[in-house]
Fold each of these.
Amino acid sequence: MHQPALTALTGFDPELAGLVEAEAKRQHDKIRLIASENYVSTAVLEATGTVLTNKYSEGYAGRRYYEGQQFIDPIETLAVQRAKDVFGVDHANVQPYSGSPANLAVYLAFLQPGDTVMGMALPMGGHLTHGWSVSATGKWFRAVRYGVTKETGRVDLDEVRDLARAERPKLIFCGGTAIPRTIDFPAFAEIAREVGAVLVADIAHIAGLIAGGAHPSPVGHAQVISTTTHKTLRGPRGAMLMSDAEHAAALDKAVFPGLQGGPHNHTTAGIAVALKEAAAPGFRDYAHAIVANAKALAESLVERGFDLVSGGTDNHLILVDLESKGIAGKPAAKALDRAGIELNYNTVPFDPRKPFDPSGIRLGTAAITTRGLGVEQMPQLAQWIDDTVTAANAGDEAGIERIAAQISELLAGYPMPGWA
Ligand SMILES: *Cc1c(COP(=O)(O)O)cnc(C)c1O
């Protein structure tokens, strides 16, 4: 059953409650390897399910446009203070609805339509909002894009510097959604300084690793830091913008009134709780365990003949090019889901296949680490992945079902918050 119990919901809307219950059980029964997902704590779940959702609070603490902020102001102030403490920044804004609107606020703060932005190309591991063509950020701004080199699968910073010198972007994004390697914030900062650009570190994927000291921090290098709160940071769906004192006012104005109306106070409360968890000593162990699991899983996959972009990982994320296994990303992801291993198909750099039917899969270890799986289980997990790919190629559905049964048996010993 879902925890906390859905008593009133089940009574009033059994159809909807049944779907939520089924999703909770699904999250329990799957090895969840989607790199952007996690399991939030029961405390975060409780905070996001409160009467705070009833309240309108346009503005910022002490400067609101609605009355009745006696308790909302301290809640938002607590979230802001905790963000500043966890990341060691001058300024934090916890109001962006999610990572994409947070990034749009950064454009609004520092660019005019048509100005030049530089970001990592989507098929190379960047995010849509870093100026990709189908995104508003690619339509309303002039976007130039860097990538990784074919031989190494890593960003070539000389290429980034040359591009920045030639194109003179006003804004440079570093970070992305499918980057298995450490981001060199000091090197990006040097390039941004040289061309007079504002450097934005989009740490959506790795915020929890940074909070836990398992990835270098962009603080002191990037003037602006954008992050979601729901990936490795393990909070509710939401986002934060952080910055030095100089860029604070422009960011705040861009979020409200530039882009948004009232903040989602129930989400703000959940973010405050997640940040308290991230400040607790156990979170350092969690962040390092995520990376240890990813490295162990990567090693076990390589031993079984999988071809990893960049050859391995430094963080929570693994990008696999399946060409050597004779299967495309989508049929592999679908077969793995049937086997009880949930991940997403993904473009790999220089992918000869189409984005909707690419060559790769993306894996992340944040959620399974929350669940309590450790490095000792990673060889078995790699073996299941390999066996599933083999079974899919052979059309062996019975083999896939056997793996699903083994996985369900393993996970019975690893409880999740939110379902019991
Ligand atoms: C996930 C992500 C985002 C967008 O977050 P949403 O909450 O899905 O809008 C932005 N940037 C990066 C690098 C991300 O990984």
Amino acid sequence: MFWSSALVLGLTHLCLSTPLTSKRLDTDDLLEKHSWAEVPRGWEWVNKPDPESIIQLRIGLKQDRVDELISSLYEVSTPNHNRYGKHLSKEEVDVLVAPHPDSVEAVESWLLHHGVDPTDATFRSSSGSWISVLVSVSKAEQMLGTEYGLYHHPQSSSYVVRTLSYSLPRELHQAISVVSPTTYFGTLRSMRATSFVEADISDQVADISATVPSSCASRITIACLQALYNTSGYIPSATDSNSLGVVGYLGEYANRNDLQTFLTRYRTDAVGTAFETITVNNGEDDQSEPGVEANLDIQYTVGLSYPTPNIYYSTGGSPPFNPDSETITDTNEPYLDWLNYILANDTIPQTFTTSYGDDEQTVPYDYAVSVCNLFAELGARGSTVFFSSGDSGVGGGDCLMNDGTNTTLFQPAFPASVTAVGGTTGNSPEVGVSFSGGGFSRYFGIPSYQADVVAGYVSSLGSEYSGLYNTSGRAYPDLAAQGTSFSVIVGGQTYSVGGTSASSPTMAGIFTLLNDYRLANNQSSLGFINPLIYANSGGFNDITSGSNPGCDTNGFTAVTGWDPVTGLGTPDFVKLQAIVRA
Ligand SMILES: *[C@@H]1O[C@H](CO)[C@@H](O)[C@H](O)[C@H]1NC(C)=O
Ligand SMILES: *[C@@H]1O[C@H](CO)[C@@H](O)[C@H](O)[C@H]1NC(C)=O
Ligand SMILES: *[C@@H]1O[C@H](CO)[C@@H](O)[C@H](O)[C@H]1NC(C)=O
Ligand SMILES: *[C@@H]1O[C@H](CO)[C@@H](O)[C@H](O)[C@H]1NC(C)=O
Ligand SMILES: *[C@@H]1O[C@H](CO)[C@@H](O)[C@H](O)[C@H]1NC(C)=O
């Protein structure tokens, strides 16, 4: 994602001068790890949870050689480097992210001190850097010097058990990067800006067309995207090894019958093709409840990448309470749980798309860095990971900071920045769509691959918006694709759906074809593409108009070259084929 110098800080090796004593693990030597100045916006305290109820505590240990992981990631992802394309195996990555033995020992002593047997862990990543244990709320409160509360988010009707601050014994700050669930509330939302039922138009748009059908001005279908992005006529052949993963959250189910209806209308040669559904973390697959987001994603990834196998990951929240508890309905640790699940597999899809995100400021910094490092593992292993850039332009609502100051600042999205896809609309020419999320991270510094083009844009802004955004932050989006008026079948009816939720699966479909092209030629998958695309912006149609208003401003404006509305632009598959084979 942001993979930048901020993450490459060498980790100080642990050197515990004296053995940990009970006292030093106890509650009288606690040092704050993270706290919020106020209850996260949109959430309300409900009550104190039953102290005897059980939560699953996920402990992220400091990864001893994570700086080497990041440098390996860059080497295998930078064209012309002698390691380009030589992705790491799961075992090789595990060596780099393993915690120092002193950290493991310190954490295990701490657990034992609190009567938690580390061998009872419900999850332990193969590298040893993540441990999950079941503890009662009162035990967790003791360990973390905190008080948990049950909080309600009326807008999404979700309930979570979280705290406003937590602490760790002083010694353990060197051993532990993050503990959750604690202060990350997770206001995860689907990046679906608009969706409404469309008159059920019976005319069918012809498959596989080289020119953009005129109907694409008002409704986007597979044929429109194939023509716009130049994929018409490409037939994938590496389908025994290549695959595309769609990551779903929030009880969104991808419906199999709706996919067939969609294919019958918009991709007739693919009728009968199926996708696999993998449920993660008690995720479900209720075929009577088709999700707009899930159907949008899977219909467009299958429609563009057919006959490449597609997998839909239905990721459930991990209820932290015993399932018999009636009070808790939703306690997501979405990225952590999905990432730890997928990274445990020896074989992983070469391309992923996720259409969900949060405001960066709602994600505690340590949590964001830990998640970012897990995405770095995926990239190092050869997967290309797309996220929607968000649907609020430079920021939704009043854009007040949550640090107690109430300053108005542009609000960057998280984790929009692995490879972030913004939105466009129209086709002659394509223009940046007003909701396209874009901006500059305040957590992650600017990576070298984009430093030049971003500096160019920032200097063209001059003093405009000065102070509202971070001139030295990781800038996004990286790319863009159509984001309005996608025809999606939901429950047999045609809906018109818009949002960068549509743009990310579109990009994933096209890069799946590019991965196919490389695999079919005995080359590796593309993996983390940012160094490649910034060095080859000629593979994209530069989008030079449109803007992304927000925070009571006009937002940024799309210009020639990179901009924080449409990134480098929209893909031209034919040109990209030449680039990725080089
Ligand atoms: C498709 O690729 C061809 C060959 O590079 C190029 O001439 C044409 O402009 C591209 N069309 C679109 C719509 O991108
Ligand atoms: C690993 O990935 C493969 C291919 O994506 C999938 O079929 C399999 O179910 C996964 N294994 C596990 C344990 O999740
Ligand atoms: C910040 O703004 C919120 C919402 O408008 C308000 O409830 C809160 O009191 C303000 N805090 C400060 C420190 O001004
Ligand atoms: C801008 O980003 C850098 C790099 O992450 C960070 O160190 C700095 O604090 C950020 N500045 C602001 C004003 O947020
Ligand atoms: C790829 O490798 C296989 C097995 O080594 C070989 O049969 C095939 O001809 C190669 N294909 C290309 C395009 O190089």
Amino acid sequence: MKPLGPIPEGFDARDGELTIAGRSASELAAAAGDTPLFVYSRDLIAARVARLRTAMPARLSIHYAVKANPYPPLLEFIRDLVDGFDIASAGELGFVEQAGVAWDRISFAGPGKREWELEMAIRSGVAINLESLAEARRALATGDALGTAPRLAVRVNPDFDLRGSGMKMGGGAKPFGIDIEKVPEVLDLIFQSGAEWRGFHIFAGSQALDAAAVIEAQAKTLALAARLAEAAGRALPACNLGGGFGVPYFPGDEELDVEAVGEALGGAFAALPDSLRETEFCIELGRWLVGPAGVYLTRIVDRKESHGEVFLITDGGLHHQLAASGNFGTVVRRNYPVAIATRFGAPVEEAASVVGCLCTPLDRLADKAGFPRAEVGDLVAVFQAGAYGASASPAQFLGHGPAREMLI
Ligand SMILES: *Cc1c(COP(=O)(O)O)cnc(C)c1O
């Protein structure tokens, strides 16, 4: 039997069923009208933000990375909990504007911004995190044409990466950010143009669970920001320290000690060099804020045995939960936290594989894991589904269409 990932905190059982914010899985499936279904809990999101606020220095702003989960009711809910929003496309700009987020709380990063996306951002006044020298020139030319001074931050490709990070985003050759040696040239362009300089954006990686690695990356980020600001002869107005706070997905993964990270950052803030004394600092988090607050519920439509192996075949799959199938940025497939929601907490009786309804062997939500014996009609819960679920999966693949979503 293969192990399953750890079930996040905050979920209970009632009469043998998983409850989410006090409502049973079958009640939620009935309320949605059908399965599969993503359920996101307001209480769990609010508790995450509150914990982070307590852990982090008061000076640090908390931004939400919209790509983790752009579900409109969730954006509206999180709008009043976080300080800022990081978007990566004009589409996401539309989502946050729809959710009533003010322009001065939005920053726009990401490679390959098109002309009309830059124009839309400059018109709305959102800060643009520049990803290349050419993009800097395009943004300045667009600002000129519009007669609007753009608000520009420089995304720096750091010369280090976040150790143990699931996805490496900094260090070495990267499509993201501007190499350190080229930063002075971009800054000169900005300073000469009369655009508003919004400082640096330095993102070194994602999905780190080791507090020491995050602390080290943040210290290096502050040192790099100070070095670049001093070379430019300017006080740094703002610095986005990136994020990279991970969540436990797999067997053996342990929760990131955000309290230790906050304490170290408080210490660093107390000893800042002159160039960073007045700087506004933020971090940008996606999965840490919303991942554990979401559950994907799918129903077993068939149960079969093949060559002695039990398959629980569900009405969901990788078209909604690509990450749980192991096909979104993982090298070795390991099991996510998965449970039989309608037999939650019941003893393990058999090894079974939970698969989806797609005709591909990739469509596996749990591989040969221990479960109570489940039958057709039972609900399966995939946890850590609040981030990179619905929006990061190929919903059109095989024509089953998207899952329902619900914020409770
Ligand atoms: C994806 C992304 C994030 C969010 O990452 P998480 O791992 O979900 O916290 C933050 N910043 C940038 C630049 C990103 O590309």
